[in-house]
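Page 42, continued from yesterday. The earlier attempt failed because a stray header line got pasted into the input along with the sequence. Redoing it now with the clean sequence only.
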Amino acid sequence: MAKVALTALLALSLLGGAAQARLRPMAQSGWSSDPAYVAWRCSDFTLAIRSSALRQRAALSSAQPEIWKDPYVWVHDKSLQKRIQQAIELHPTNENDFVVDYLEAFQAVELPTPFSELELYKSDKATCLSRFGNE
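This time it went through. Structure tokens are written below.
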């Protein structure tokens, strides 16, 4: 998992500038009833959050730590991650990789605004939590 996180961080740093997001929220994708699609999207979504949150926190000055207190704590919940992983094991083939698309969407946010304000983030968080866990 650490190797995957490092790969995602590298992909984010290689993207440079704010790229246009290619993702629509899962609920609007037409695939939200497909268990494999939701499992892989939630897995990639949570990986991108962990990577992007680290990058955004590092970019903020120490004068603004209150912005970053807890908006992403939910993504580290071990039971949520376990349920997502179990769902992925049922659907081992993934034709899409959404990590880079999420990283592009999250990078497009101007600091100090947290990317948790994006509609994509809010909607996909709600989808993942309704499917795999509770807040």
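Notes: The CA atoms of residues 48 and 99 lie 6 Å apart.
Reminder to self: strip header lines before submitting.
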